[in-house]
Amino acid sequence: MRHHFEALRKKRANHVPLSPLSFLRRAECLHGVRTAVIYGDIRRTWAETAARIRAVAGGLVELGVQKGDTVSVLSPNIPELFELHFALPLTGGVLNTLNTRLEPETIAYILDHADTKLVIVDRELVPLLSKAFELLGRALPVVEIADPVTEGETLGGPTYEALTGAAPLPVELPADEWDAIALNYTSGTSGRPKGVVYHHRGAYLMALGTGTAWQVPPYPVYLSVVPMFHCNGWGHPWLMAMLGATVVFTRVPAADRILEAIRSHGVTHFGAAPIVLQMLAEAESDAAHFDPAIRVLTAGAPPPPTVLEKTRAMGFDVMQVYGLTETYGHISQCLWQDDWDDLDPAEQAELQAQQGIAFPMVEEVTVIDRSTGAAVTRNGTAQGEIAIRGNTVMAGYYKDTKATAEAFEEGWFWSGDGAVMHENGYIQIRDRLKDVIISGGENISSVEVEAVLYRHDAVQAAAVVAMPHEKWGEVPCAFVELREGAEATSDDIIAFCREHLAGFKAPKAVAFETLPKTSTGKIQKFQLRERAKSKGSA
């Protein structure tokens, strides 16, 4: 009888809140003697790291941090920021990692909007925080990370190391898995950044899903390259505790430091934006091939196929993933298919640049025609908007019910990314919807034009935006950053594009400059659009 099933209710024994804090408890018990952290001369085991985390949590409570309090952290990728991904949730507080490359005005805005109670700051970044406080009109309590590898200023706050002397907190899970664990702000490529609220349940499932999709074995050696201020490093800090990983830090993500760390410590896995992969390919002058291959996730912008070709030749097994701040990071993957093995490298790279299929912890990632509400035809040409549904979608935007409601219309999270779906169910981005160039009634994908530009030997980076045109409405305008020592003219670039594209898709104007980028490698097209407006012509 049905009522016999309905009588079985959730109990403490069979229903436990999901939280990545359980991974810390597991790491301390199971992986205790294994190396958890490598940073310069620092080596710490998981037992030592867990003890520090619990003590730091106790120290934060002594400073008055309570459940639901936002604590902002301004720090590069170093062990202290890694530890705070567990220590702050242990207190019940909410971790707000600040983008270290933001201007003081935006940091001041975030501190105010986030209702920050305490700021933990690396001393090298104290001048930036001080300017933000001036613009905020008030100073907030601070704790200072005194990293011995660099010098910095002080605001007179207690040091992070002093917190490690406090009475440690036990590792206890939250009463409700829907409790906020992190508050991450969107990259702000246009307008004010929005505060994206993550909960414990989503963070836990993100780690599990990533480990499965990336097929990460126990005890990997993981290089911390993805900024932990960006989607909490795509959830990788929590995943690494679950797997008993060794996490290697370089503080500065410079090509020489990354390559040296890979060789010195036997790195097996890392994540990085395409711009970082390009930087590594160009720095690797001795053409060394890493063997066994190093597993790499890349995201942030569709990677140019030329970059994928170069890194594959280096021994990097790169998988393109796709996601947004609002989805805890990556939620789809371009999983390699066996029938790609016999293709030439250029064809393989083209396929690798797709955004692929949903991660296992995501219920659905699809492409919908907003005008009809139906999924697009799987033919690689019908375009729609990527829509997402699953447990690793944000709780909502902090203090913005209107934007939250708009993002969740009709039971989906709407990405704002225009895409097609191929016959095999793989998604491929054609453009941010606002980046589609409509010229004489024809849609032009800026991503498609940019992929051609990256094939030009002189091009270091490229972005294409719409430029007003009296006859066609708008036409493509290319902004190009040349390689050091390389030369090219506008006519050269336009002629090259016309060799590989339909004439109407080729740029009608080219500007040479250093492109404005966010800290995660995304080109800030809103700045370029403003410049293109002034270039419009008949």
TrEMBL record:
Residues 448-522 form the AMP-binding enzyme C-terminal domain. It comes from the Bacteria. Homodimer. It catalyses: 3-(methylsulfanyl)propanoate + ATP + CoA = 3-(methylsulfanyl)propanoyl-CoA + AMP + diphosphate. GO terms for molecular function: ligase activity; metal ion binding. Its EC number is 6.2.1.44. It holds the Pfam family AMP-binding. Keywords: Fatty acid metabolism, Ligase, Lipid metabolism, Magnesium, Metal-binding. Its cofactor is Mg(2+). Residues 32-398 form the AMP-dependent synthetase/ligase domain. GO terms for biological process: fatty acid metabolic process. Gene3D superfamilies: 3.30.300.30, N-terminal domain of ligase-like (3.40.50.12780). This is 3-methylmercaptopropionyl-CoA ligase. Belongs to the ATP-dependent AMP-binding enzyme family.
